[in-house]
Design a protein that fits this description.
This protein is an alpha/beta fold. It has eight helices and 14 strands. It folds into two domains: 113 residues, Arc Repressor Mutant, subunit A, CATH 1.10.10; 122 residues, Response regulator (Rossmann fold). The strands form three sheets. Strands 2-1-8-9-10-11 form a six-stranded mixed beta sheet, covered by helices on one side. A five-stranded parallel beta sheet has the order 4-3-5-6-7, sandwiched between helices. Strands 12-14-13 form a three-stranded antiparallel beta sheet.
Length: 251
């Protein structure tokens, strides 16, 4: 459904919208794949038109998933370190619904169950069959596209269009590149139009209560949204400062 904001009456209602698929290639993150397997999988994905990126370890994977929006994450959980499970757990704790595919060792049902319970969507067991892996990736991506069509959640204000499910923002039909945290902050504002939030409120809601960050972090992200989405960033119309209180979003 589409939420179209109107200056005269705020949120004017929810109207059906056609599901326009993005022309941008699907982005897939590969995490801790073995060195011999890595180039083979990346080449197969690229041949199918996907963008494949690689994270060497859990810390890099968590940084990349927080910074960019991926359509699918492939985790190799066969490492004794168990870092793949950590990535799965923390990605889900953030509230991300990005599909996760595990690569597991054969004869390890406990690992498979643990990963699925943490939020993984599917798995492929060793010995790895490349054809099966590609098929499961395509099935998960197709399932994600179908879910978007059934539960489309789109917001519009001014010349801005925000597709929540696709994690895509456009301005006058041109894609606006937002970092993951900028997009989450934008989504929070869209879901609470007209509400004034302190910097501490936004840090808690968007960054998480456990994260201790200076309130300047919020100011920097607000400035980024103004720069990317406002016609006149120095005289914002939508992302407003409320003196001594914080910020609010006005459609």
């Amino acid at each position: 459904m589409i939420h179209r904001y109107d200056e005269s009456c705020g949120l004017s209602g929810m109207l059906p919208v056609d599901c326009r698929s993005s022309k941008m290639p699907r982005k897939i993150l590969l995490v801790e794949l073995k060195a011999a397997l890595r180039p083979i999988v990346r080449e197969r994905l690229r041949n199918k038109g996907y963008v494949a990126e690689y994270a060497m370890d859990a810390d890099q994977a968590l940084y990349m998933t927080a910074r960019d929006a991926f359509d699918l994450v492939v985790l190799d959980v066969r490492s004794p370190s168990g870092n793949g499970f950590r990535v799965c757990r923390e990605v889900r704790q953030r509230g991300s619904e990005t599909p996760i595919l595990m690569l597991t060792a054969v004869g390890k049902p406990a690992a498979i169950i643990a990963g699925l319970n943490m939020g993984a969507d599917d798995y492929v067991a060793s010995p790895l069959n490349m054809r099966e892996l590609m098929t499961r990736i395509e099935v998960l991506l197709r399932r994600r596209r179908n879910a978007r069509r059934k539960g489309l959640n789109v917001y519009e204000f001014g010349s801005i269009r925000v597709d929540i499910q696709a994690a895509e923002t456009t301005r006058e039909s041109n894609v606006v590149n937002l970092f993951a945290r900028e997009f989450r902050l934008l989504r929070y504002f869209l879901e609470h139009p007209g509400v004034t939030f302190s910097r501490e409120d936004l840090l808690s809601a968007v960054w998480g209560q456990s994260q201790k960050r200076p309130t300047r972090t919020v100011d920097m992200h607000i400035a980024a949204l103004r720069r990317k989405l406002e016609n006149q960033p120095r005289q914002p119309k939508h992302f407003l400062t409320v003196h001594r209180l914080g910020y609010k979003f006005r459609p």
